[in-house]
Prior knowledge:
- The chain is mostly beta strands.
- Helix content is about 5%, strand content about 50%.
- The chain is built from one helix and 13 strands; from the N terminus they run βββαββββββββββ.
- The strands form four sheets. Strands 4-5-6-7 form a four-stranded antiparallel β-sheet, with no helix packed on it. Strands 8-9-10-11 form a four-stranded antiparallel β-sheet, with no helix packed on it. Strands 1-2-3 form a three-stranded antiparallel β-sheet.
- A hairpin with a 7-residue loop joins strand 5 (about 70-75) and strand 6.
- The longest helix is centred in the N-terminal third of the chain and has 5 residues, at about 45-50.
- The protein is globular and about 45 Å long.
- About 25% of the residues are buried.
- The model is unreliable at about 1-20 (pLDDT under 50).
Amino acid sequence: GLLRRELAGDAGALADELWNVTLLLDKLGLYTMEVYQKRREEVMLDLNAMAGGLPFFDVADAEVSPDGRWLAYTTDTTGFRQFVLHVKDLRTGRLTEGIAERVTGVVWANDNRTLFYTQEDEVAKRSWRCWRVRVGETKHDLLYEEPDALYSLWLERPLDGAFVQLNIASKEAT
Length: 174
């Protein structure tokens, strides 16, 4: 059988609580992530199938756009938490892979086409850049770059979706 547990984070708040994200663990220790609309209960990501024969595979983020059309998610095939951003059109199943590398967080804008994401510094291994990209476009706009290696960035979106918030903090500085 499979054991179910809810994914940590904002899974219950995805797309105004129209979506569920569940991790399934089978007896062999293999995980499958299910992202499904409560009304349709359709599996959107099957990690075991996606991993194929890879020695390592992980998904860190799974964010559904406010209108429920798009799924933004990140995958790591290295084991070094080097996540790559992908977007899946949930209406057609069309996948856009490799949108950005070393992604540490993803948040949708209210227009349902714009993604904000943070990116890791290769040397310091901290989130240091914030970018904006529209689904289907190749131009990425750098919105902010944190020059101080003691500080990291992360993105948040309140439940009402009124805005996207960029947070900057340090665990070492006072």
